[in-house]
TrEMBL record:
Domain ABC transporter positions: 336-571
InterPro entries: AAA+_ATPase (IPR003593), ABC1_TM_dom (IPR011527), ABC1_TM_sf (IPR036640), ABC_transporter-like_ATP-bd (IPR003439), ABC_transporter-like_CS (IPR017871), P-loop_NTPase (IPR027417), Type_1_exporter (IPR039421)
Protein name: ATP-binding cassette subfamily B protein
Ranges where the ABC transmembrane type-1 domain occurs: 20-304
Protein topology in the membrane: Multi-pass membrane protein
Keywords, ordered alphabetically: ATP-binding, Cell membrane, Membrane, Nucleotide-binding, Transmembrane, Transmembrane helix, Transport
Compartments it resides in: Cell membrane
A GO molecular-function descriptor: ATP hydrolysis activity
Transmembrane segments: 20-40, 60-89, 132-153, 159-176, 255-275, 281-302
Cellular component, GO annotation: plasma membrane
Length: 594
């Protein structure tokens, strides 16, 4: 149960003075507060014995007021210390989690879904913060304050009566232990269910256009109702188990009060105690109500904290399985060499790159083509260090690619992926993301190279136009060209376009390719594409099939071979010509053979 406190030891150690000061203030406040019943008891005895007068009243009143003021001030200090510490823990844990996410590559995010990561980074960390704040308060109250009260009851009233009243509370520990373990298990199940709901909600939002296009709103509403109903049942199960704590504590507490009153009446009749002693004793028992009840709360907090800690540790201890320890600083891009290079994904049943031999000279343009699943993106991922290095030779210059420092390599690369990731910011912010100190002049220049200038002119706010989350307010072609502009503004040593022109028309594609060839003369460019017109000007083109290079050469030489590249190029040319003729026809809906 206390494992979460042990695992948070690092945080308590870092903030030891803050927590130590809070505990001291809380302990002193507890000591001062237990003197209040004692003063009340003496006050009552003074009335009963007839000793009450103005001087005695003034003395007790000043003592009472002084205790209240001191306790108030001390409560402020320990409250601020504990709860500000809880917020500090949230900040540190989330920062640690974010640093971990940013270091991880693709294999890591294949293990965990986005909604699950968000649930653990929000709700579970908040549960840990509750442990560091309210949990520590409850722990001090359930131990230190209770012990102070017991000592005060025994010393100022009667030890026999104190023991008689406290002993009935001991069996409560067994109930707390058994039910606490059940809470731990039920809470972890509920959290997993919450993560699942989070995942599906994010997926639904991302796919909203498709859902509406297929008129599946009702199906998703029904599915969501079922999921939330299941989550409600699991959370109710946690509440159901937790609900047993309070009545159990109150039952044992009632037994304790009954014994205290009965035995206390006997002691008063025997002259051992005064009426003021009994009143003070009952006040002490009343003050013990919250610390005793807090025992159940402490168990809940610690159990939930332990479950949350396990969930957070699962994602912070998990890795992407990649271990790039190269220490050669890459200051420039050199020639690339693949020799008998083979790679296979862990989840794949077949080899994804098979005995690849490839030389790419610095400053040249390489075209990579092939059918879907042929290995084009897999080859690019090796350059990006997104997956483990395969077997065989993969060099840049005279050194193995894995021997280079990974961050220094990535600084040299401009990458435009198939799935364009844009931020819910302005056009300016999305493009300048590629260059920290980019000026508007730099941005406009990259926009021209990406053939986005006409689109920008049609936007009401120009560079300040907000594109919405993931670029929801712009077209697919506009997303691609903003992504290309973002990569070009970096002026990278190596530019990688991974099927990044699929959503633009042929004319725009040729403009972009021409601009890239002109501006990036002498720099390495890799273009992976299904549209062969995008690689016509490449220095070398390779055709991949089932992870193997089946054809290679320039555009003209591949056309002359009349192999796969020739067949595919001819089909695309005919298709493009057909589209052009249909669009230029007075009646675009008229059949060509009418």
């Amino acid at each position: 149960m206390f494992e979460v406190l042990i695992k948070l030891k690092f945080f308590f150690k870092e903030n030891k003075w803050q927590y130590l000061g809070s505990f001291i203030a809380l302990a002193i406040a507890n000591v001062f507060s237990v003197f209040i019943p004692y003063i009340v008891g003496r006050f009552i005895d003074a009335i009963i014995t007839g000793e009450m007068n103005a001087a005695v009243l003034r003395t007790y009143s000043l003592q009472f007021a002084g205790l209240i003021i001191v306790t108030y001030v001390l409560d402020f200090f320990w409250g601020y210390g504990l709860f500000s510490g809880a917020y500090k823990l949230q900040k540190e844990m989330r920062s640690k989690l974010m640093r971990h996410f940013l270091r991880m590559r693709a294999p890591y995010f294949e293990k965990f879904r986005t909604g699950d990561l968000m649930a653990r980074g929000t709700q579970d960390i908040r549960s840990l913060a509750d442990t560091a704040g309210y949990g520590m308060l409850v722990l001090m109250s359930a131990t230190g304050f209770t012990a102070t009260l017991v000592v005060m009851m025994g010393v100022s009233v009667n030890w026999g009566l104190t023991l008689a009243a406290v002993i009935p509370l001991l069996p409560m520990a067994y109930v707390v232990k058994v039910k606490g373990a059940q809470v731990d298990e039920a809470y972890e199940i509920a959290q997993k269910s919450f993560s699942s709901v989070n995942d599906d909600v994010l997926e639904m939002i991302d796919g909203m256009r498709v859902i509406r296009a297929y008129v599946k709103e009702a199906d998703f509403i029904d599915k969501f109702k079922d999921q939330t109903s299941g989550l409600l049942k699991k959370n109710n199960r946690v509440s159901e188990i937790a609900a047993i704590f309070s009545p159990t504590v109150k039952a044992f507490e009632g037994l304790s009060i009954m014994i205290a009153l009965s035995y206390g009446a006997v002691l008063v009749s025997q002259g051992v105690l005064t009426v003021g002693d009994i009143v003070a004793f009952q006040m002490y028992l009343g003050m013990m109500i919250w610390p005793i009840i807090s025992v159940s709360e402490l168990v809940l907090i610690l159990r939930q904290g332990s479950a949350s800690m396990r969930r957070v540790e699962e994602i912070t201890h998990a890795t992407d399985g990649l271990n790039f320890k190269g220490n050669i600083q890459a200051s420039h891009v050199d020639d690339f060499e693949f020799n008998q290079f083979t790679f296979k994904y862990d989840s794949s049943e077949t080899i994804n790159l098979d005995q690849v031999d490839l030389d790419l000279d610095k400053g040249k343009t390489l075209g990579i083509v092939g059918k879907t699943g042929s290995g084009k993106t897999t080859l690019i991922r090796q350059l990006l260090n997104q997956f483990p290095v395969g077997t065989g030779t993969f060099n840049m210059g005279k050194s193995a690619y894995a021997e280079y420092d990974d961050p220094s390599l990535r600084r040299l690369i401009g990458y435009v992926p198939q799935d364009h990731v844009l931020f819910s910011r302005s056009v300016r912010d999305n493009i300048s993301f590629g260059k920290k100190d980019a000026t508007d002049e730099d941005i406009i220049q990259s926009i021209k190279m990406a053939s986005f200038e006409d689109d920008l002119n049609n936007m009401d706010k120009g560079l300040d136009t907000m594109i919405g989350e993931k670029g929801v307010s712009i077209s697919g072609g506009q997303k691609q060209r903003i992504s290309i502009a973002r990569a070009l503004i970096k002026d990278p040593e190596i530019l990688i376009l991974d099927d990044s022109l699929s959503a633009v028309d042929a004319k725009t594609e040729q403009n972009i390719i021409h601009n890239i060839q002109h501006v990036r003369s002498g720099k390495t460019t890799i273009i992976s594409t299904h549209r062969l017109s995008a690689v016509k000007e490449a220095d070398e083109i390779i055709v991949l099939d089932n992870g193997q290079i089946i054809e290679r050469g320039s555009h003209d030489s591949l056309i002359a071979k009349e192999g796969w590249y020739y067949d595919q190029f001819m089909k695309q040319e005919v298709k493009e010509q057909t589209i052009t003729e249909d669009v230029s026809s007075p009646d675009p809906y008229k059949r060509r053979d009418d």
